[in-house]
């Protein structure tokens, strides 16, 4: 499950990277611009970036994104699937409960975040760097350069900034994307009468869209706090202080800032992962006769 999960995660991230970049920019907009500055939607944001810096600008941080998926994405889905398969085997091959699916998602998400957080920090830094005036940009050359410079200039601990909200995000994301999509697939199969081992495209896409929505709704508050903490170079504000600052200055709805862009990212991301995952499994089985 790890090899196919990693391939599917990298494929999906390469496809939706511009949307992910817009999401990060929207989350950091309030702290990067004077108060009262109108907040653009993600389409306007991407259009202005292309007009100002060219098409290459919307792929800033792609190397960090792919490296992150090779670690975090691979572990997150691989651990979840391994635990789920083990629990299903112990259950005599029958479907496991949603609680067990959620537990597998929570464990997989938490462990994966501990592995992938340094790459997540570099991804946010590389994406946020493009928002700064040219004279203030750090101009990271790539993911390895960003990792080295952050560790040298700010200390090794800076690579784990935002670990607490990132763990919360990873757990929420896995429960929403993996556990909820698995549960939705079972519910749709009961209606469509598809073969559980080879469900139809309608069932698979419906389950993926459902997982994408719940993943976005549950994880976005943690994702916003993570982005704010990881982008901060000097402040040592913790999770609770960052959350209180957002609540006091921007209001409770600010925790779902950029939900349109975030959902537009999560739903296609989930669909691409789950659809390509099945195809990569077939290729892997054919290649290795597994």
Written account of the structure:
The structure is a single chain. The protein is mainly α and about 290 residues long. The protein has 9 helices and no strands. α1 runs antiparallel to α9 (about 260-290), α6 runs antiparallel to α7 (about 200-230) and α7 (about 200-230) packs across α9. The longest helix is centred in the middle third of the chain and has 32 residues, at about 100-130. It is globular, with a radius of gyration of 19 Å. The N and C termini lie close together (about 10 Å). The model has no long low-confidence stretch (mean pLDDT about 85).
By oligomeric state, this entry counts as single chain
Overall morphology:
globular
Strand share of the residues? under 5%
SS-derived structural category = mainly alpha
Number of strands: 0
The portion of residues assigned to helices is over 70%
Radius of gyration: 19 Å
* Element-by-element helix/strand order: HHHHHHHHH
| Average pLDDT number | 86
- The unreliable regions are none
Q: Please report the distance between the alpha carbons of the first and last residues.
A: 12 Å
- What's the story with the biggest beta sheet? none
